[in-house]
Amino acid sequence: MFERPDAGERAILVHLNLHAGQEDLLELQELAKSAGAEPVHILTGRRYRPDPKFFIGSGKVDELKAEIETHDADIVLVNHPLTPSQERNLENALGTRVVDRNGLILDIFAQRAKTFEGKLQVELAQLKHLSTRLVRGWTHLERQKGGIGLRGPGETQLETDRRLLGMRIKQIQRRLERVEKQRHQGRSKRKKAEVPSVSLVGYTNAGKSTLFNALTKADIYAANQLFATLDPTLRHYTVGNGAELVLADTVGFIRHLPHELVAAFKSTLQEASEADLLLHVIDANAEDRDETIFHVNQVLQDIGAGEIHQLQIFNKIDLLENVEPHVDYDEQGKPVRVWMSAHTGAGSELLDQALSKIFASSRVRRKCFLLPEQAAIRAKLFGYARILSEKANEHGGWELAVEIDKKHLGLLKNVRIEEIN
Prior knowledge:
Layout: E1 9-18, H1 25-34, E2 37-47, H2 58-71, E3 75-78, H3 84-94, E4 97-99, H4 101-112, H5 116-131, H6 155-192, E5 197-202, H7 208-216, E6 233-238, E7 244-249, H8 259-264, H9 266-273, E8 277-283, H10 289-302, E9 310-315, E10 326-329, E11 335-339, H11 348-360, E12 363-370, H12 375-384, E13 385-392, E14 398-405, E15 416-419
Parallel strand pairs: 1-2, 1-3, 3-4, 5-7, 5-8, 8-9, 9-11
Antiparallel strand pairs: 6-7, 10-11, 12-14, 12-15, 13-14
């Protein structure tokens, strides 16, 4: 996209209230700061519908141009998606760079991506976004010009550039397909071994990474900013009753997540869509708490994870008054909400108890006495159960203590077993 100076950039934020829907202004300010910009002025307005040429209307363009000169701004951040022509018309009229909401989020993602897969996904989204705005970089070649030395290749250069972009997009997609196959193999192995998968989802900056670090003792980056972490991280986690889980920390959601990002990060978001349980982390101190819950559930529907069972984690209760850590249960006695603070650790034991209750109901522990000729059953147990201990007996067989899902108890129908408390 474009290089950012170390000192940041002076930005004017533009936000319109539209009857057809609106973005949150506070969120735009957080996005701008996360991208490294320095907001120096906020221009707001109200329209019934966007202006086809400038989106904000010609009157607002004149007002915006004056504010750019007054505040010596060098970039305009618009809190709405712009068409390529609207973005180009604004830049020509203002004489400065204009970045819409989608471009701003893409730029933040480009800064945050650290892994090979994350960088590929961001580049794919950027190229798809850029391909619709290709004419901006080649305005001097849009048409044939008269005069000696001014006869350029015209649209031929544009077509060449589009073809090169298309080739690069296909190349990245092929690489991401290989990465997705590797992820699918990993998920298949976990499912075969009956290791439940739990994905942390939630609005960006709700505290997912802080909770992930607290549960797994990992050391992934966590900060009070939007999209502090981008790349997915998986870790093993053992709850209090001994059940083993795989925790996945996923990218934070946001209002109206750009479609190109949802498409590009399909393989990453699939960790959530194929999870056995979603830990929906919620900022309990946020003023728009209910609204962010709605938007997260909307994105989960978009990626095919809307029907997966959720355990809501109301995080950051240390910022609330008179709220103690506790668990809310439904009519069947199943945990549905945990009130805690990942930052202070208050209530973390309640989360562990809730996870133990959720994943204990379908798994049992048995002591198995296998004969030498039952080696095939032993091999299956290693694939479908968690082996707690094993030792050989004097008859050449094995004594195993296992934790196994009730649906696989049929494997032990010809085996002498004892229950384990």
